[in-house]
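Fold this complex.
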Amino acid sequence: MLVARSAPECRLYLDLHPCSCGEAAFPVRHLLRTGTSGGLEAVYEGTCPRCGLPRRFVFTLDPATPPPPPAYGGAAASHIICPGEFALVADRSARSTPVDPAGLTPEQRQRGRAWLAQALAAEEEIAKFIPSGLDAVPPEAFTSHEGRVLYRREPGRFHRDRLAAVAQAYREALAAYG
Ligand SMILES: [Zn+2]
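Structure:
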């Protein structure tokens, strides 16, 4: 069962789980329904535009009210996206726009702000995997292949201080975008 904390988290999960042909994007039909256990379920379904296979994801929504987007969830860690995946999303999002917004058009600035806000939201998810009393994300928190590869290569990225410093850098970049 996929327990999701918010709609952005469902969307990110879709992005991270492409079709067997490699295409992640598909025209999504989205509906909410009451599940058999009485909780709310979010269904995302459609057809892969590249190979025609059906795509379908059913999430059970965490009953806690989600914080506003682009946050992926509240204080509790994700059940479905691992800290390594969040780190990769933060990297990719931050790289999608220049650190210095000088010379960008208003549209580029607006897109840049959205990328940086997503980078910050993803970075902030990682520290939620640190158990109280510890200073770093424990190895067993990494459950995806890509996440484990990143952790083996750069374990230092997952220390509390380093995570806070990177999040602060994203906050400053976001402030520079105005
Ligand atoms: Zn496909």
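Residues 19, 21, 23, 48, 50-51, 53 surround zinc ion (CB under 6 Å).
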